[in-house]
Amino acid sequence: MTQAVEKLKKIPIAIPALTDEEWQAVREPLLSGWLTQGPKVSQFEKEFATLHNVNHALAVTSCTTGLHLALAAMGVGPGDEVIVPAFTWVATANVVLYCGATPVFCDVDTNTFNIKVEDIAAKITVRTKAIIPVHLFGLCADIDAIRSVIPPHVKILEDAACAAGASYKVRMAGSLGDMAAFSFHPRKSITTGEGGMVTTNDNELNRLADIMRNHGAEISEEARHNSLKPYILPDFKMMGFNYRMTDLQAAVGLVQLSKLHQFIGERQVWAEYYNEQLQNIEWLKPQQVSKDITQHAWQAYVCYVDPHKAPMPRNDIMDILQAKGIATRPGTHAIHMLTFYKDKYGIHPDDFPGAKACDENTMAIPLHNKMVKEDFDYVIEALKAI
Q: Which residue in the list 129, 155, 188, 356 is annotated as catalytic?
C-alpha cells in the first residue's frame, strides 16, 4: 500500500485575471483585419481618460515608452536634469538617458517607499527640467507636497505604472501632474500583455506626444485610412517613434478596464485582511497609507522586514516561504545600486540610505484577483510560523 503524497500548495506572486470575455473581445479586430492602432485603441483611450478624469489619453507599447514619450514631448534633452527616486524600477531612470538628459537620484521614505519630499529641494539646479514621482505599488506620491518644493517651470511626470484607478485627495492618478504614464504589464491590476497609457490635461503636450508616438506623422494611421485620399502619405515635421498600441491589445484592455474598480475593491478587502492578520508580527511593517490617499490601487502588497527585529534576513524569510510554495519578490530595486548606474555616476550604496534599506528589506507577498481566502490564510500562517 502506498501512502499518498500531499501536493505542495503553490501561490504565485501575481496572476492576471483574464476570462473568456477577453478572449472573445479579440475576435472583432482579428475578423475586421484592423490589427494595429485603430478604432479599438481610440475607444480604449477615451474610456481610460474618462475613468481617470483627464482630457487626453494616448495608448502606447509600454509604460517605459510612455515615460520616454512624455519626456520627449516636454522637450527634455541633453543638458537637462530629471529628478527620480532611487528606489523604483530601472525604467524610471533609463527613460531620462534615452532623452540624453541626466537622472538625479533622490532618496525615498522607508514607510511609504515613495520619493522623500524633504530631499527634493537639495536636488534642484538650474538644469532641472522635470521630476518623476513614482506611485509605487499603487500608492500615490504626495504630489501637493512635491509641487510646493519645486519651481513652477519644473514639469511633473507621474510614473503611474502601478496606479491605474488610484487616487489622492479625491483626484485620480494620471491627473495629478503635467503628464503621467501607466503600465498594463501582466503583474499590474489590469493587463493588455505589454502596453501602457500616457495621460495629460495639457492640449499641447498631448498634441506633441500623439505625433511623436507615430513616427512624427502629422496625422494618425486611422485618420489617414478613413480620409477621402488614404493614399496620400502624411508629412513628418519632427522625429518620432513607433510607440503605437495594437487594436488586439486595446480590445483586451477595454474588457479589463471595465473590471478595474472591481479588481481594486477586491484587493482593498484582502489588503485590509493582511493588515489585520499580520499586525502582531512586529518585524513586518506594511506600506504606510496616509489620510490623503483616497484609493490605494494595491498593485502589490509590499512589506518592510525590519532587520533589527526580524529573526533572520529578508532573503532567508523568502527562502522559507518559497519552500512552502509561496512566491515572494523584493519590492523593487534601488537603481543607484545597479552596476550600470553605480559605475556610470560613481554612486555609493550608502548615498541613498532609504533606498538601500528598501532594496534590502522590502518584500512583496501574493495579492491578486485569483486568490481565495484559503490562499491568504496559508500565506498568513506561514509568516506567523517564522
A: 188
- Between CA 110 and CA 75 the distance in angstroms is 32
CA 9, 13, 18, 23 dihedral sign is: negative
Task: Decide: helix, strand or coil at residue 324.
Answer: coil
For domain 261-384, give its CATH number from 3.90.1150.10, 2.30.110.10, 2.40.50.140, 3.65.10.10: 3.90.1150.10
- Residue type at 279? Q
Only one residue has cell 513607433, namely 242
Give the three-state DSSP class for 148: helix
- The length of the chain in residues reads 386
Fold of 20-259: Aspartate Aminotransferase; domain 2 (3.40.640)
pLDDT at 223: 72
Give residue 219's pLDDT.
75
CB–CB of 367/329 below 8 Å? no
Q: What is the DSSP letter of 11?
A: B
CA distance 259 to 146: 31
Q: Return the domain boundaries, the chain.
A: 20-259, 261-384
- The whole-model pTM stands at 0.94
Question: C-alpha grid cell for residue 260?
Answer: 478595474
User: Do the strands 167-168 and 171-172 form a parallel or antiparallel pair, or are they unpaired?
Assistant: antiparallel
Tell me, what's the pLDDT at 2? 41
**Are 263 and 189 contacting, i.e. CB atoms less than 8 angstroms apart?**
yes
Rounded to the nearest 10 degrees, the angle between the axes of helix 247-258 and helix 39-51 is 30
Which regions of the chain are under pLDDT 50? 1-5
**What pLDDT was estimated at residue 4?**
42
Instruction: Return the bridge partners of 200, or none.
Output: 56
Count Cβ atoms below 10 Å from residue 219 Cβ, excluding itself. Answer: 16
Q: Is 188 a catalytic residue?
A: yes
CA distance 62 to 69: 10
Q: How much is the pLDDT for 124?
A: 98
What is the four-CA torsion angle of 122, 123, 129, 132, rounded to 10 degrees? -110
H helical segments located in 194-325: 203-212, 221-225, 247-258, 260-278, 314-323
How far is the C-alpha of 386 from the C-alpha of 368, rounded, in Å? 23
Q: Report the pLDDT value the prediction gives residue 6, as an integer from 0 to 100.
A: 52
